Amino acid sequence: MKHLLFATEKWCDADPLLSFTNNFHNSFNSFSRSVKDWNFNTLHLDEAGIVYKKDINNVLVDYCKEHSPSLVVFSLLNGATFNPSITTYKKLRELGVKTCIFWPDTGPTWGMQTIAEIADSVDLHVSWDCPTSWHEAFKPSGPREPNHIDLWTPEDESLFYPTDKKHIDVSFLGSVDKYRDRTSLLPLLKSEFPDIVMSGGQRTSKLTPSKYAAIVRDSKIGINFPMSQTGVFCQAKGRIFEYTSCNSLLIDWDNPSTKRFFDPEKEYISVKSHEELVEKIKFYLSNEKERAEIAWNGFKKFRENWTAEIFWKTLLKKLNL
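The structure assignment produced for this chain is given below.
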């Protein structure tokens, strides 16, 4: 049986006061439910330094010498001192261990710049967010390194799955204060739809993954904001897969990232203004048949193309494992 090691953060933002990182369900759980002929273990970059005062570089090399994993999957910490060095990636290669780094947020600095700096030392870089931009002069998605691919957010099907009855009309889950579009538009939505469920996720509201997923499953309509914190480029946020996997109607702002995965007006609803957003929410809350048809189309597209099982099969095939 092949062996995989996850080397990721343990806590959100490496802060023990916050909840566990999303890697627990997006990476660890999705892998264990999708890949049956492998086992896995975890080493946490932040815990090694904060709790055990260990150098993660030594810990990683020692582990790989003793256990000989076929693959190490990393999730790095922006601006933290807990990340492995380039020398460590090269040592793992010398030991015959393949390496892959997950990039949930691939911005032009931390993401693309760091990938370029360490590209040759790692076997594969995988972006989850598929960043795109309308501005020709600003291309966070290119040029790509040869070993840098776009996939999507692997969702844990024990959390995100369809339910027969939904009791929440409309919801938005995610950070607000660092996003200009959300800061200005969400209060307007609240005035139009007083019962809208809004929560800041694990950073602001400290929602556990189970509570977060329960809201998504129970939502008739889920809203996504695709813009990055920079306000310059769009991302395929995990929300678009969370809502569609739960057979909830996704309403998203018109953007090229979401269109890479779902067809607008057929598998989700795309809007271009606040007025149109309000109009579409009212229409689809009042027209259950139309809402159910588009939500079902989005769910089918997810099941046929964007599940965690397909994600992991694609990744392992790319690495010839």
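Interim note for the steering committee: Confidence is low (pLDDT under 50) at residues 134-138. The radius of gyration is 20 Å.
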